[in-house]
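Please supply some protein, with fold tokens.
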Amino acid sequence: MDCYTANWNPLGDSAFYRKYELYSMDWDLKEELRDCLVAAAPYGGPIALLRNPWRKEKAASVRPVLDIYSASGMPLASLLWKSGPVVSLGWSAEEELLCVQEDGAVLVYGLHGDFRRHFSMGNEVLQNRVLDARIFHTEFGSGVAILTGAHRFTLSANVGDLKLRRMPEVPGLQSVPSCWTVLCQDRVAHILLAVGPDLYLLDHAACSAVTPPGLAPGVSSFLQMAVSFTYRHLALFTDTGYIWMGTASLKEKLCEFNCNIRAAPKQMVWCSRPRSKERAVVVAWERRLMVVGDAPESIQFVLDEDSYLVPELDGVRIFSRSTHEFLHEVPAASEEIFKIASMAPGALLLEAQKEYEKESQKADEYLREIQELGQLTQAVQQCIEAAGHEHQPDMQKSLLRAASFGKCFLDRFPPDSFVRMCQDLRVLNAIRDYHIGIPLTYKKYRYKQLTIQVLLDRLVLRRLYPLAIQICEYLRLPEVQGVSRILAHWACYKVQQKDVSDEDVARAINQKLGDTPGVSYSDIAARAYGCGRTELAIKLLEYEPRSGEQVPLLLKMKRSKLALSKAIESGDTDLGEGKPGWMFTVLLHLKNELNRGDFFMTLRNQPMALSLYRQFCKHQELETLKDLYNQDDNHQELGSFHIRASYAAEERIEGRVAALQTAADAFYKAKNEFAAKATEDQMRLLRLQRRLEDELGGQFLDLSLHDTVTTLILGGHNKRAEQLARDFRIPDKRLWWLKLTALADLEDWEELEKFSKSKKSPIGYLPFVEICIKQHNKYEAKKYASRVSPEQKVKALLLVGDVAQAADVAIEHRNEAELSLVLSHCTGATDGATADKIQRARAQAQKK
């Protein structure tokens, strides 16, 4: 254990810091880091280097090269820089490289040097140029802040949703600030800058002077400033050699340290661990590295090479031409177990396990000591936690073996934490491998913003598909979130390989993906089309099981007829108010793309599409519908069209009649004589109704034949009604019903009686009784009850309330059904004698 803590350095009495090697860099740099623009992504991300010839007169004619490496120095991309001078480099949260140029343009590149997009930081920059820039990260995304030649600041808090904000002017600022940085407070980005001995804070509305509390006197300039990874703390390096550390709000001072060096440092970054009370700042000069905090002494390291610092969530990465190291505060669990002469339960358990492997009885002594103190559970938890903070697999295994050994002597220790730690370390060790080069710590891996999905995305960005799939299978992630998603990314990358034939690429993708759930062949085909491989896209679409998903891309590729076939296969024919169905979408696309004749010919070959288009035209384009019927010689539908048009479009009677005449001619051509005759009758009725309106007044147009007759009767024009019935051959029964109903509605009982006696009623007289009862006139109903035919007489007498006579008629008819009907109308109080009479008649009939 003494050897293990050899690289531990105390900072005061309460914290140790250690620096260990992540990788031995083998990237064969041609330039010193000091001669390059350098950007390293957090969370163990990639490193970008751009040699800066714009600062060297002798190399002004040499084009720079942009190189991108993994954290282990493995080359990922290299491209010749052909754009303008670059002021600053930085990585976004999505691991896209942002290159800020002097002219204010920001060029965005992928991890493998592929150009993604560009945007501008405003028109003002074109005139004044960019002097300096910062790329920063917030919870909303990655932002860019620039300082222009007019000594004004402009920033965007999220380059994914670009909204430029010009910051207020700093009073009296005539030169470049000695240092500046971006602060994020209350979800708003601010700029803190130093001008001589003064500090200014810029927000969206104002520029305000701020003073750090407790700052040592005699400061005439601030040479460097650094904000912590979480934007909670701020460090200021003054020209007096003092380092002030406090909260980012500049309201509270944490500590102040005199480093006795007045030269401006190359870099200054925070080195802190989440939930730790210790706060430390790492300051780098040309050949010296210093860790300072709330302690009278500092930790100092000698730098053999030009180095670069990368602040992380739980420490600082330090890389040079030959090595890549990690400096961090020793976690509490590791300190408890490994510090010299530690009697912590975890330390005792680790010793017990080692002695057990030696078959020594000391293992039992250590174990009994832990059990007597009741700290065995704590010892196991300490070993599990410490294993997560170790970088070397051998030490991880040693600590996990100790935890497993201690678990054997516990009855109810939940295994979840142990199993999860084993899984996490296996994943971490896999991605820390030199060939992968993502040196994540356990703390960063478990950080809320770096989920397993984000890690998988980063592996996909590096095109490490086999490893990503292995991790998904090992962690048993749902297929749609894991393997399927990665295979889809692999397929999208595969279609970009233009040195392989379309047939081979399509076959390889189908063999690998098959019917994997969650994979959309249409999305892969869209990527192929975006790469200019139209035929490959069509081949891939053939593997898409959902026909409707093929349609949008086929339309985009101008394969409209094929899109129509696929839309018909999908059966999506929705014409509702919501999103239209695919077939309807394709039809509208074809209509705009083809001339009218070709469009109609295409429809004739697709009956379902033609039917759907007709439905659309019935609501939207009536003239087109007529053209369709004419082209198909569909006289039956053409006649129906003209009938609808006569009522929908024409208001004048002449126009209606003309349209109906056209419809009748179409029906004759369709050999539908019934429809033609009915249309001609409607024309005659319309002319007659217009004449009736002219002669009698009132409203007759658009009434049906029956309603017209009824209206004439109600108006007292009985002869005209009878003449109309003769002209249109209305049957006598229907005419009698119409007249009976109309006279009853008028309550013209005298005329109704005359009508009933005019001749023998073809509908009988029971309807007269019923209609009178309906109008609540029993007196008139009795007049007709006696004239009802014998078979309907019982019903008529019951309607007028003559139960006794109805009983007599039923007994006379000897009809059981009529007897039961009368009996059902008898009430106990008034019709008791009638009911007895019916019962006696039934009894006599049964005796016979």
